[in-house]
Amino acid sequence: MSADVIAGIAEPNRIFSGPVTFLKSAPKLEFLPDPTVPEIAFAGRSNVGKSSLINALVNRNNLARASNTPGRTQELNFFDVGEPALFRIVDMPGYGYAKAPIKTVQQWRYLINDYLRGRAVLKRVFVLIDSRHGIKEVDHEIMKMLDAAAISYRIVLTKTDKIKASEREAVEADTMAKLRKHVAAYPKLSVTSAEKRGGIDELRAAVLEAVAS
Questions:
Q1: pLDDT at residue 103 above 80?
Q2: Between vectors from CA 186 to CA 189 and to CA 136, what angle results, nearest 5°?
Q3: pTM assigned to the model
């Protein structure tokens, strides 16, 4: 593991304030970049706030582009962190958008499944859950797939500024209870608000911890 990454765990803002650049999009496995550095993937239902959270994580406004059309992102998007790259952030296609064509949904599923199961440099998946809605059945499906593939993942609650403190406590408790049923789930939550920058420093530290694992 790079000494820069290890040092950055103590001060994660230093890593994320440095160079972060878009590398490429991969609509199919043959377009994946060479597996030369650790990768951290972000997954979540359509409109869970994934692009906004990635932008907040790397302190940029539009590195990851949000779309007003749910389900529009159909590719794996890779971003290099550091120059040369210390690790990569992978923005995965949103899942669970009911109005997407069946063929498109199948293509997303194949791409996600194949990437998750076959990527040796993948260190951890951060699964984003909208705190206003909690874990849905489609999230459980992804979590079960990660369990079966023995891929470590961590739940990230998003948009916590949109609910009351009491509601947030309730959804945290409910989420933790459900996590205990999933063998590959990391036993801690990340609680965030991209808009208010809540929990972002802690999420950066969690990413770097996963990179160095």
A1: no
A2: 65
A3: 0.90
Indicate whether 47 pLDDT > 90.
no
CATH of the domain at 69: 3.40.50.300
118 has pLDDT over 90: no
Compute the distance between CA of residue 148 and CA of residue 135 in angstroms, rounded to an integer.
18
pLDDT-based confidence at residue 35 (cuts at 50, 70, 90): very high
AA identity, residue 12: P
Reading the block at residue 49, the tokens are 């706030």
How many structural domains does the chain have?
A: 1
- Determine the structural domain holding residue 189 and report its residue range: 3-157+171-211
**Percent with pLDDT over 90 in the chain:** 66
Q: Strand order of the sheet with strand 190-191? A: 20-26, 76-81, 87-91, 39-44, 122-130, 153-158, 190-191
Report if residue 166 sits inside a domain. Answer: no
Position 9 in a domain: yes
**164 within some domain:** no
Cα separation of 29 and 33, whole Å? 9
Whether residue 49 contacts residue 35, with contact meaning beta carbons closer than 8 Å, is answered with no
